Amino acid sequence: MNLDKSAIKTFAAILALSWTLITGVAHAMATDTQKATFAGGCFWCMEHPFESLDGVISVVSGYIGGHQENPTYKEVSAGTTGHAEAVEITFDPEKISYEKLLEVFWRQVDPTDGGGQFVDRGSQYRTGIFYHDESQKKAAIVSKADLEMRRIFGKPVVTEITRATTFYPAEAYHQDYYKENPIRYKFYRSRSGRDTFLDKHWTEDGKSIKQSTWTDEELRKKLTPLQYQVTRKNGTERPFDNAYWDNKHEGIYVDIISGAPLFSSTDKFKSGTGWPSFTRHLDTADIDEVEDNSFFMKRVEVRSAHSDSHLGHLFTDGPPPTGLRYCINSAALRFVPKEDLKKEGYDRYLSLFK
């Protein structure tokens, strides 16, 4: 029998999926295992974080939450079936808890995005927690509430928590895609925007980089009186009498509290106002823009999404190409010169100055 390379590869993938399902069932029969089901955008990126955990028996990519039976990848990706790409995890609760799996889930996604995940748009790429019993439902609600309270992302968490319905395993070539197609997977992952977002919100050991949980007493010790007044009390420093209004050096400006990168000297311009002014910020995930009706004026306040600090205000009288003017207090910022970016861990921004 003659088989081409494509047929052999497909046959091998089918065998691999069959073995995954068989071993998962066999282990479930031998031990008191449980299921956990999460949707986090492209399921290729959701397998590896869970498969690497001690106590996880198997991770299967598939579809859930829709109205069509036995959907195909082509149908789901078209957004017509109501399903979301998801992973179904079989785990041993004696080795790893469902709460731990929830922690890992939150660290893989942008739970504030209701229109998809990163480069993948549409409801088929929505985030979701699909609980299998009431204890999982309660744990998921508590976990989500804790995430919202910590304000890690500075925006509402929109991930839905719903009862698990029928889970349909995806086609064999989608299973363990990161193992079977490592080059294509790495290329997709690096271009998807997922890692860039996650790196800005979580450290390698899974802790939030956001510092808004600092106590008021700790912030008073960390900040100067002016920095505290500006960032925590929505104050404004004096124009033409602050650290960066006339700074012409190359580099980036970071949040004085959390260290999150906010603005670049490449977008700084001389506005004549006496405060640092920028035509844009570095990333939407780091900035919150909220309506400000104080002092009988209607303005747009600019806040740091990481520390919930007051930064300044946004106006529409800036120069091209954006026409915007982010008028920011120097006291809310720390300047990192171009030559120090790598040393301080901001080397990904060196490309701005080439």
From TrEMBL:
Catalytic activity: L-methionyl-[protein] + [thioredoxin]-disulfide + H2O = L-methionyl-(R)-S-oxide-[protein] + [thioredoxin]-dithiol; [thioredoxin]-disulfide + L-methionine + H2O = L-methionine (S)-S-oxide + [thioredoxin]-dithiol; L-methionyl-[protein] + [thioredoxin]-disulfide + H2O = L-methionyl-(S)-S-oxide-[protein] + [thioredoxin]-dithiol
Swiss-Prot/TrEMBL keywords: Multifunctional enzyme, Oxidoreductase, Signal
Catalytic residues (positions): 42, 327
EC number(s) reported in the record: 1.8.4.11, 1.8.4.12
Signal sequence annotation: 1-28
Superkingdom to which the source organism belongs: Bacteria
GO molecular function: L-methionine:thioredoxin-disulfide S-oxidoreductase activity; peptide-methionine (R)-S-oxide reductase activity; peptide-methionine (S)-S-oxide reductase activity
Domain MsrB: from-to ranges: 216-338
InterPro entries per the UniProt record, alphabetical: Met_Sox_Rdtase_MsrA_dom, Met_Sox_Rdtase_MsrA_sf, Met_Sox_Rdtase_MsrB_dom, Mss4-like_sf
PANTHER family from the UniProt entry: PEPTIDE METHIONINE SULFOXIDE REDUCTASE (PTHR43774), PEPTIDE METHIONINE SULFOXIDE REDUCTASE MSRA 2 (PTHR43774:SF1)
Purpose: Has an important function as a repair enzyme for proteins that have been inactivated by oxidation. Catalyzes the reversible oxidation-reduction of methionine sulfoxide in proteins to methionine.
Family statement drawn from the similarity comment of this UniProt entry: Belongs to the MsrA Met sulfoxide reductase family.
Name of this protein: Multifunctional fusion protein
Gene from which the chain derives: msrA
